[in-house]
Amino acid sequence: MLASLAWRNIWRQPIRSVLSLIGLSLTSALLVFMLSFQLGSYDTMKTGALGLFDGFGQFQPVGYKDDPDVSRLLPDWERLLAATDIAGIDAATPRASSFAIMAKDDISFGAAVFGVDPAREPLVSRISTTITEGRYLLPGDDATIVMGEGLARNLGLAVGDTVIMLGTGNDGAVAADVLTIVGIFSSGISAMDRQITQMPLARFQETYNLGSAVNVVALRGADFGKVVAADAALKQLAGANGATYLRWDELQPALKQMITLDLSTAMMMYAIMVIVVVFILLNTLYMSVLERTREFGGLLAIGMRPRQIGAMVWLELIFLSGLGAVIGIIIGGALTVWTNSVGIAFPEMGDILRQWGISGRLYPDLTLVSALAGPGVILLAISVLGVIPYRRILGLEPVSAMGAA
Amino acid sequence: MPEMTRRHLLALSAATVILPSAALAQDPGEILRAAFDNWRATTSHAVMEMTIKKDTGTRQLTLESWTEGDDNALARFTAPARDAGNATLQLGRRTYVFNPRLNQVIQLPASAMSQSWMGSDFSYNDLAKSDAIITDYTLRLLQTGSSGGRSFYVIEAVPKRGVPIVWGKQIVTVRDDYVLMKQDYYDQNGVLVRSMVADRIGSIGGRPYPVQLTMSTVATPGQYTRIKTLSAEFDISLPSYLFTRSNLQNPR
After folding, report:
1. Residue A287: helix, strand or coil by DSSP?
2. Which of A360, B75, B136, B159 could be joined to A350 by an S-S link, Cβ 3.0–4.6 Å?
3. Is A108 on the interface with B (CB under 8 A)?
4. Do A168 and B119 lie within an 8 Å CB cutoff?
5. Claim: this prediction has a pTM higher than 0.95
6. Residue B73 has pLDDT above 80, yes or no
7. Who's near B25: CB < 8 A, 6+ residues apart?
8. Between chains, do A101 and B108 touch, taking CB under 8 Å as contact?
9. Residue A279 and residue B39: Cα distance in Å, rounded?
């Protein structure tokens, strides 16, 4: 009864209601799209930055994060490969790494050398897809190496040349080797291209005297969120094997900080948007309550209780904002789904994005959170603030109300 | 006269307080210079034993070293077999390493100078810039003390502005016969990072000498690198080819 009255009341002033609805739904749509875009680009950044090399998570020896010394080892790393049995984890790859001097004739540079499994590594890291000259490491490779184009250029090396590697092995003895360059990669991140080299794990273990041990096991899954969700199971597996598990935000704390900073400034903007819209709308509706004082007086005179009238007006508010939210979610959702399929290009931001391993295109991602958060907050705020017109109506008295202008 | 006596006594007691320290008071740069001269002389040739103790085990290496002035030094490992033949040559601030397996000489890039030397607690920087403490630091004599009948100078060394040095300061203790007793390395926050102690002083090549030096890092208790000088001769004449790249690769 009250509900249908409230619904009919909305359409007694169609133009005003439609204008309010447009304001509400556009704001909601904008919130849906922007939040989807923002959260989606975070996912793209995380996937891009971590998928390039680190992996979505890593098993490491205890203390390795603070002191990544080649002598900190995971002797039982093969048991950690069982991580792929955990839902959400699709691939795991062992790595060993150390600092070494790369030299060619009289030129030498310091670099990070990674011993990787040529078969498993491409399942976790995108480096193999960024080879610009030659090829990536292959199973069966021995004294071979791939390196970033910046390092190759600095050393004056091309595919087919040999390079001298001089490092310190697990036991402190000199680890020296002569390796043939089979490929040069260009990851787009110049710091990586100047510092990273990869060689076959077996040769690395031999040269650095690691036996069959490795330093880390890096993980990847098809869905970033599912890897994050598998956190507890991965930590348990690590603990059972004397290792620690590092989540993405422990591998790339700078990325995490950047996202937190960006999100908190955006949240402030969203909050301002919601507050402005809610109060404009509330003002309009409160005005209409004031205008309808005579009408309410009449209703009181024919026996309706002030509470019922208040509830009716409150319902009008909720219906209007609810309808606006639904329309907003539909418009915003549709916009998001469409842009998700084509992506949004940011040609002028290419360089910044490349640092995080992202091509110049970002994809909004519609999730339950991004679809419901913005409109939900508006709906909730209006519903709660509906108490203001409600209380006003409770104070009405039939005779004086009917006499109002 | 009582007045005279009192003044006389005052003067006397002042003299006794001031005189011994006046005899010791010297420029801290000169003290360190003398300590380095005692340690390395004009030229030196020594046989040493380096013990590297880590969590994972202990390695013992034998090496032969030659130095000339502040700038030139050559160290060649002679044992054990797997380390023998590795050599490090320092010419001024350039450092070269030779590896017998590669049969190659490599000049170390600046980025590698902070790396460990042969897996020890010493870095290549320690070898190359051993006397930098005199040239690149502002020195201050903190105190002179005595213990066991000997006097000691404690010198604080703070890097000069603009000089790329990782340490916040160093505190060096030198005995009155210019034997380097202790060298403490502090970080930029004034926290002790590592410490080198002369835990045995003896007489080698006719001079008082820190026969055994132990370097330990605060962050890794129980681990250390100990260098024991087995024999040494000083101020000898060394052939000019000694400190060359070709001699590094093909010792005569």
Report:
1. helix
2. A360
3. yes
4. yes
5. no
6. yes
7. B141, B144
8. yes
9. 82
